[in-house]
């Protein structure tokens, strides 16, 4: 750009970068609710496959991620969000690159979020010790997490870790992420046109 | 199959066939909520593109349909559901094959459903004359529909035409389709594990 933008326009043009890994067998309703609403909020959402194949989601929809996880390991993100579903969440838990990215983003105090069965991938990275979290019922092995406080709220915020329960809480989960990162006004600007029932 | 199945097992193995056209620029949250929940209900959901390309949805997700609409024009379906989003709904409205399929299914009194901006495609096929319907606010030209009764309810059932408002009503819309076609028990069996807030 020839003209140096003003401080104000720099601020407005700086989008938050969001990483959403799409594993084979992820829950498509959760994955798409997250990417759709965060995109509506003006975030730059990057979806990554764990392999170079189209992603067959848990209820049959086939999704094409933007790229593969190998291409983004050294890139900075403001937020990482894990959709649930099985076996998707198991793949996220078992993938060394996902685990490495979770740990490095946690060290940088970036926001990390997971829904449904995916909090188990945060547990494996050691991110749930001493935290209050929720998940899909029965999907977290509390005995393997130190000082876990388990909640049955739809969305739970504990410092930089945000967790949620399932497809029926995915919209509240995504809207909460928008509110935490961009404020209540931006959440309302995204929520109103969705036409949710009062 | 060598053995003729009993009447009971025939009944149980007979899945409802659902046609979901995925146009370029469809609303991915609506499209995927529909396909996910109807699949959870045991329906055989077939997604069809209007061309042979991957479908770039309105908020950037890329979906791979099962097949193209040309391959299913002569096949019978129990239900046709149109996701909204723009320009997706415009494509559904302008596509001769979609219009032809809507008209032939309407003649057979099959259930036809549309959400968000997509009821306009039903209007073009002449299916909304004399009906009570809803849609995304401002997306239907009421002056071009004879004896339209417009509702602001989240989901509206008028005989075989079922309409809804937007991404925030997509879950209620899909659950209503399940209830209408398979009964309240099946709706509840799909709804409970979604973990919706009370």
How do you describe this structure in short?
The first copy, chain A, is an alpha/beta fold. The first copy, chain A, is 33% helix and 20% strand.
Would you kindly provide a written description of the structure presented here, covering whatever features stand out?
Two copies of one chain form a homodimer. With 198 residues, chain A is of the alpha/beta class. The first copy, chain A, is built from seven helices and eleven strands. In chain A, the strands form three sheets. The first copy, chain A, has a seven-stranded mixed sheet, with helices on both faces. In chain A, α6 (170-182) runs antiparallel to α7. The N and C termini of chain A lie far apart (45 Å). Chain A binds chain B through residues 27-29, 32-33, 35-37, 39-40, 45, 47, 54, 59-64, 136-137, 154, 165-169, 171-172, 191, 193-197, and chain B through 27-29, 31-33, 35-37, 39-40, 45, 47, 54, 59-64, 136-137, 154, 165-169, 171-172, 191, 193-197.
Q: Can you lay out the helices and strands and say which pair or pack?
A:
The structure is a homodimer of 198-residue chains.
Chain A: H1 7-13, E1 17-22, H2 28-40, E2 44-49, E3 55-56, E4 62-64, E5 67-68, E6 79-82, H3 88-94, H4 96-107, E7 111-115, H5 119-124, E8 132-133, E9 149-150, E10 155-158, E11 161-164, H6 170-182, H7 184-191
Parallel strand pairs in A: 1-2, 1-6, 2-5, 6-7, 7-11, 8-9
Antiparallel strand pairs in A: 3-4, 10-11
């Amino acid at each position: 750009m020839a003209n140096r933008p003003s401080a104000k326009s720099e601020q407005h043009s700086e989008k938050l970068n969001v990483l959403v890994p799409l594993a084979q067998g992820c829950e498509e309703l959760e994955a798409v609710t997250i990417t759709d609403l965060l995109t509506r909020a003006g975030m730059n959402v990057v979806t990554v496959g764990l392999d170079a194949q189209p992603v067959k989601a848990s209820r049959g929809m086939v999704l094409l991620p933007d790229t593969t996880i190998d291409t983004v390991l050294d890139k900075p993100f403001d937020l990482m969000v894990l959709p649930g579903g099985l076996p998707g969440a198991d793949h996220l838990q078992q993938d060394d690159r996902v685990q490495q990215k979770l740990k490095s983003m946690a060290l940088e105090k970036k926001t990390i979020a997971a829904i449904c069965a995916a909090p188990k991938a945060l547990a494996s990275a050691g991110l749930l010790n001493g935290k209050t979290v929720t998940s899909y019922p029965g999907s977290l092995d509390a005995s393997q997490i130190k000082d876990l406080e388990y909640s049955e709220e739809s969305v739970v915020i504990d410092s930089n870790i945000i967790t949620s329960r399932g497809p029926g809480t995915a919209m509240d989960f995504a809207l909460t992420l928008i509110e935490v990162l961009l404020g209540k006004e931006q959440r309302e600007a995204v929520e109103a046109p969705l036409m949710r029932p009062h």
